Amino acid sequence: MARAPRLIVDVTDLRRRLGQRREVQIDLDLAPTTVVDTSSTAEPVVGAVVFESIERGVTVLGSIELGWDGSCRRCLEPVSGRVEAEIDEIFQVGAGDHEDLRDFDGEQVDLVPVVAETVAFALPLAPLCREDCPGPDPDRYPTRTEAELEAEAAAAPPVADPRWAALAELDLRDDA
Ligand SMILES: [Zn+2]
Q1: Which of 61, 76, 85, 97 is deepest in the core (most CB within 10 A)?
Q2: Per-residue pLDDT tens for 103-128?
Q3: How many domains does the chain have?
């Protein structure tokens, strides 16, 4: 199995003074992630983030861009595109399981899980080949009404967000 990608940023120097900033370029080869019927492409995920030293940690702000492939939700023809997504994270020593913070050792920040999560949540899950795509046969398959869609949703059992399942399948372990 290929070695898991790494993007470790040492913030020891940055954290010597509060408010100090450093820009970090992102150019990461991640294994494609698939959520429902949309996948990220094999092209590198690119972007840039700015690290800033704060009390007990760092903030990481920026954006990434990635390519995706999927199929049109109406006509099912292949469709692809690029999407940009924001990164906005706080790494804090001793953050524990705080939901808005990421715990770290105060010295090294691993950006790979952050980028992988951002990719999974940026994928368009119901893309269209074009805004007014009529579908394969609009007369036979008329667009369902809002009320019909709600009734279907109420009848269906609740499902976990498929994006988390896709993330769970990603192997981000260093020793893989
Ligand atoms: Zn279409």
Answers
A1: 85
A2: 999 999 999 999 999 999 999 989 99
A3: 1
- Burial category of 3 from C-beta neighbours within 10 Å (exposed 0-12, middle 13-18, buried 19 and up): exposed
Domain residues for the domain of 117 are: 8-131+146-169
Residues with CB under 5 Å of ion ligand 1 are: 72, 74-75, 129, 133
**Domain-embedded: residue 3:** no
Residue 137 lies in a domain: no
Model pTM?
0.76
Amino acid identity of residue 154, one-letter, is A
Ligand 1 centroid to Cα of residue 76, in Å, is 6
110 assigned to some structural domain: yes
Distance from the alpha carbon of residue 153 to the mean position of ligand 1, in angstroms: 23
Beta pairing, strands 78-93 & 102-104: parallel
Please, are residues 167 and 40 in contact by the beta-carbon 8 Å criterion? no
